[in-house]
Amino acid sequence: MAQEAISLDDSEAGFTLVEVLVALALFSLLAVLLFDNVKFGMQAWRSGSARAESFQRELASQDVLRRLIGNLYPMMLGENAAQRRVDFSGQADRLEFLGDAPLVSGGAGRYRFKLFAERQRDRVDLVLQAHHELAARQEAERTLLVSDIGRVEFNYAAKAIDASWSTMWQDQTDIPGLIKVRVVMRPGDGRNWPDLLIAPRVRADVGCVYNALTMRCRGR
Questions:
Q1: What is the DSSP secondary structure assignment for residue 112, as one 8-state letter?
Q2: What three-state secondary structure class fits 184?
Q3: Which residue from 27, 39, 123, 147 puts its CA 20 to 30 A from 9's CA?
């Protein structure tokens, strides 16, 4: 009877301490592996979302530049025919022009736009400033188009075909036939902006009735 009791006790024995420790070690290893996989997946998701958001912002900024520059208005200034010049100022790192009002403002009238590279301590941003044409003292609205870039370059050509580029366009009797906007990223930056080649659609200030006193078109 004693032997049968011993045999019964042996058959109902639980896990040994070594087996429990091995199981705990394996469970800990699996938990660590699972946590690393989840962490990697979250990081990949966040990185992908950030890239997608950045890409969408870049596309939106490029679309803004195409529409604003493409719809610029060549208003004529000057006291007489000999001194008349187009209201357009283009330099290598900035561009100022008159264009259609943004849709957010109701689309009424025209706005003065200024695109320029704003240099801060350790970064350069492409900024857009805008204010209503007839509100010279109005504080300009600022919009950050592209942040933390290397530099921005504006180039101008008289003709859209066989373009001969220049970094300056001021005091001219006509607007450029083609404007190139180049955004150069800093070394190591993964963003890649294509050169934007934009041809203004309106070539003449056809609605202008010149006022020699104000040196503007009447009613503007």
A1: E
A2: strand
A3: 27
Taking CA atoms, 96 is separated from 61, 72, 134, in Å, by 17, 10, 16
- Secondary structure in 3-state letters for 12-44: CCCCCHHHHHHHHHHHHHHHHHHHHHHHHHHHH
Give me 163's structure tokens.
């373009």
Q: How far is CA 28 from CA 21, 24, 40, in A?
A: 10, 6, 18
User: How many CA atoms does the CB half-sphere of 135 hold within 13 Å?
Assistant: 12
Please check whether residue 160 is in contact with residue 199, taking contact to mean a CB–CB distance below 8 angstroms: yes
Question: Where are the extended beta strands (E) located within the chain?
Answer: 72-73, 76-77, 85-86, 88-90, 94-100, 110-119, 124-132, 141-149, 151-157, 169-170, 178-184, 196-198, 210-211, 216-217
Reported confidence tier of residue 84, pLDDT bands at 50, 70, 90: confident
Q: Tell which phi-psi region holds residue 107, choosing left (phi > 0), alpha (psi between -120 and 50) or beta.
A: left
The predicted model scores a pTM of 0.69
Tally of residues, the chain: 220
Q: Stretch 92-108: mean pLDDT, rounded?
A: 78
